[in-house]
Amino acid sequence: MTPVSAVFKAMLAKDVRRELRSKEIFISGFLFSIILLCAIYIAVTAGNLKFEKMGTGAIWLCILFTGTVSMNRIHQSETANGCYRGLILAPVEGGWLYLSKVCANLLLLGFSATLLVPLTALFFQLDVWANLPYLLASLYLGILAFVAVGTMVVVITANTRMKDVLFPLVQLPLVVPVLIGGVNSTAVALEGKAPWDWLQMLLAMNVVFLSLGFLLYEFLLEE
């Protein structure tokens, strides 16, 4: 096993094992998503809106808020325990540490999103089984781009005094293209069509964001 793969696997296993032991981030994020779904459902019912028009937005609102909270909490634990010093001293390029963090965030948020799909279908009367492969591709490509941006931004704001406020303020404008692509791709998939154009857009954003993160992460850690 090469040093790069050893460090990558160790970092990924550490984040996953910590979450499996505590389940703090998953439980709090998933419960928050359910509460948000209930609030949107009540608002849609009170306004006599069409349920099928709100399902896509509901899914991505849950991903947006849950992902923002979970990524912030994960990196707060790194700051509190002084793990950033160890990350800087790791004998590999910082980009590989970045990819391990992205994979850990993707697993956590992707698992939550997968559980949210049938709940959203139940709330908003969506037919998610008709075009499930394209729906999952839209969600996972969008989530990957979302965590690729968030993993960079949370390191930038980690050592600031108002990191809890600055992280969402800096991140949200940067993920607007991701949300546009994710929402439109998911909407087209729920209509039973193939969202090739939107999937290509999400794939291009993933290439750009992951490349930037891989190149800049070590510098961001040192700063």
Structure description:
- There is one protein chain.
- By secondary structure, the protein is mainly α.
- It has one domain (3-222).
- 86% of the residues lie in helices and 0% in strands.
- The longest helix has 31 residues, at 94-124.
Q: What percent of residues are in strands?
A: under 5%
Count up the domains.
1
Report the total helices: 9
Helix and strand pattern: HHHHHHHHH
Q: In total, how many beta strands?
A: 0
- Summed over residues and divided by their number, the pLDDT gives a mean of 82
In angstroms, what separates the terminal alpha carbons? Answer: 30 Å
Main sheet specs: none
Q: Would you tell me the structural class of the helices and strands?
A: mainly alpha
Taken from the alpha-carbon principal axes, the silhouette is globular
**Which percent range fits the helix content?**
over 70%
Calculate Rg over CA atoms: 18 Å
As residue ranges, the low-confidence spans are: none
In short:
With 223 residues, the protein is an all-alpha fold. The two termini are 30 Å apart.
Give descriptors for this structure.
223 residues; mainly alpha; 86% helix; 0% strand
